[in-house]
Structures are given as C-alpha cells and as structure tokens.
Design brief:
Elements: H1 12-40, H2 44-52, H3 69-95, H4 101-126, H5 132-158
Helix pairs in contact: 1-5, 2-5, 3-4, 3-5, 4-5
Keywords: Membrane, Transmembrane, Transmembrane helix
Amino acid sequence: MALSGSLRTFPKELKWLIGAFIVVLSIGFYTGLLFVNETTHAKPAGIEEQYLGNEDQEEVAVMKFKKSDKEMLTLVHNHMLSLSVIFFLLGLILYTTKLPKKLKSVLMVEPIASVVCTFGGIYFLWKGVLWMKYIVMLSGALMTLSYTLAVAIILFQLVQKPKPNTAQD
C-alpha cells in the first residue's frame, strides 16, 4: 500500500479529522510561542535570563530566579516527550502528502532534531554553557519554520481534489 502522496485520496471524514487535528494542534503550538515571546522577548539575553535568573541585577521590571533542578528536569522531560509525539504524528501525516522526497524527509526529521537541540541547549545553558542560547534560538526558529511549512502543505493538500491517474511518489 503506497501512502506517500495519498492524502488527497483520503475519505472526506478522515480529511476533516486531520484538518481539525492540525488546526487545534497549531493553536496550541503558536500559543506556546506567544508564551516564549512573553517570557524571553525572543532575544538571547531573555532566554538566558529565563533559566538563569536576573537576581544579580539591581533594576529589573520582573525579578527572575535561576530554575531549580526539579523545574529544569520537568521542563526538559515534558517538552521533549510531548513535542516528539507531536512531530512524529505531524511527520506521519506529512508522509501522505505529495512532495519531493528530500523536502519531505527534511520536514519530517528536522523538527525532531530541533527538539533535541532546543531543549538540550536549554539544559546546557542552565548548566552554564552560555553560548547555547544562540543554538536554542536557531533550533527553535528552525523548528517553527519546519512546523509552519508542514502544516501549510498538509492543509493545502487536504483541500485539493484527487487527480485521476496520477503516479504516486
């Protein structure tokens, strides 16, 4: 059974389920990004301050303290587990789209690699490897870009009608 390129041929009810899942998932994903922006201002210094605190500064609008071992382990554990499942499911759905094989492979694997780099980077930043804040920013941006492209491709192909007699990838 060839699944690659088959999304357009799925029954209408399955397309609706996938579409609803992608929309709800995206609301959650982008709400999380709003939270990240609110707590870090999407800047390297903000990322560092979020995990290492700012109690050494005299004049700050909001006092932040270095995260505890328990807070960091919980954050890394929860995000790596949940995002890996999210990107695995998104990758399975993306596999059913009609795309060039290399692009599809990158969009399926990149976000999972970015999860490791982002949350591994946050952990190492917390441990004192301060340059990891740049890795966290880059991998987080790549994760978001990959997610956005995958979702756009899936939603676009969900609304397309199947083309008769077309070869599958």
